[in-house]
Every structure is written in structure tokens, then in C-alpha cells.
Amino acid sequence: MTPALRQLSTAEGERRYLFLPPAGGSVGTLREIATADAVWGAEYPGRGDRIAERLPATLEELAERLTLEFVERFGENGVTKTMLIGFSMGAFVALEMTRRVFTYCGAEPATLVVVGAIAPHRRRPSAYPQTDEALTRLLDRDGLVPPEVRDYALDLLRGDMALMEKYRGPAEVPVSCPLIALCGADDPARAATDDATGAWRRWTTGPFRAELVPGGHLDLLKPGHGSAFWHVIER
Fold first, then answer.
1. Confidence grade of residue 31 (pLDDT, cut at 50, 70, 90)
2. Nearest to 200 by CA among 215, 213, 181, 183
3. SS percent in the chain: helix, strand, coil, step 5
4. How far apart are CA 64 and CA 97, in angstroms?
5. Strands 5-7, 39-42: pairing kind
6. For the chain, percent of residues with pLDDT exceeding 90
7. How far apart are the C-alpha atoms of 24 and 109, rounded to whole Å?
8. What is the band of 65 on the pLDDT scale with cuts at 50, 70, 90?
């Protein structure tokens, strides 16, 4: 089986960063902001060089498989120096991983960062788009997919949205590591409420910070936004 975790920047540092892609995304989606030392990304099954691997039936299964590899590769000490950073769907994968990591090794990541994701207790799974027309509009809105791979990205997005529709969220037991919730000021997930920012407060017993950042949904992943992303993360 091809490893899921990929090193996106070569130098190591005191802190490690593990990015979890959004729905329809891959490690390629993350490279524009992989400008710090010790950045890793997760390649989900069914894409890139893992295209032939069995797809997870649920988001929980995806998180479980990634957690096992994460703990095996880095061990307890490595886990505690790693920030898990999830974008949109990846935020829920990161949350599920954080909960599982503690079960396996008694430790939690240095920080959990969720970007552009409505807090689990505020989600409406039935609201996720399922038709090809709606999914195509979603791809166009985010602007992260080149035209030549649109059909491929649409297939990935369709499968990931099916996982999101089935996902009902974890039992309401918060993590204890620090949690940072970020959302674009123009992101529809914000919807003029704190769904994607302050509502995450209840999901950690540790330090919490919520911030609005300029732009729309996942604009932090676009070219030229790397410095703004790292400025917020390291503040």
C-alpha cells in the first residue's frame, strides 16, 4: 500500500505541520502554501499514485487509516510536535484523527487547526450538493482546479461529498489540545454567523482562537496567499 503521508517541504523544524485536503482535493491542492519547514500532506485514497486503492466507506474510516499511519510514522513524540491542519472536509478528518490519536498513544497533536468548516454540531449533512451541476458550481467557486483536470476533480468531489453527507460528526467529547478556527470573511460557510469560527469553541477544553481571514472559501490555498496563512497560524 502506498503511504498517504507525504513530505511537501524538505527541511525539518521544531514544529511539524500535517495538512488534510478539502473535498475533491489532493496533496497538489496544498503545495502553494507548503512554504514553511516540515510541512506534510495527506493523499487520500483514489487520487494521485493512490488512485487504485480501496476508497473508504466513511469519513471515520478515512480518519482511522490516516491515524494509524500518522502514529506509526511519527510516534508519540512526533505527534505532540505536529499541528493538524484541515481544510473544509479535511477539518473533520483532522478532528477525527485528533480524537483517535489519543486513544492509540495517549497524546494529542500540538494544535488542531480547522479552515473553512462549519462546527460539527451546526452542520446539516443533507445540505451538501450532490448533483453534477451543483458540484461543478462548487469547483468554479473555489477556483482551485485547472480546466484540464475538471472531470477528474468532479469525480473526486462527488465521492467526497458522499462521505460528508453520511458523516454525522463525533460524539460531543471535546479534544484538549489548542484549537484554531479560521474562515474567509466572504466564505458562504460563515453565513453571517459564527458557524465556522466561534462555534468550534465547544470542541476543545484547551486554548481556543477564532479568526476571519480575507477572501472566500479556501482562498488561503490559492497562489500568493501562503504568507497570510502562516502569519495567522503562527500569531
1. confident
2. 181
3. 45, 15, 40
4. 7
5. antiparallel
6. 49
7. 25
8. very high
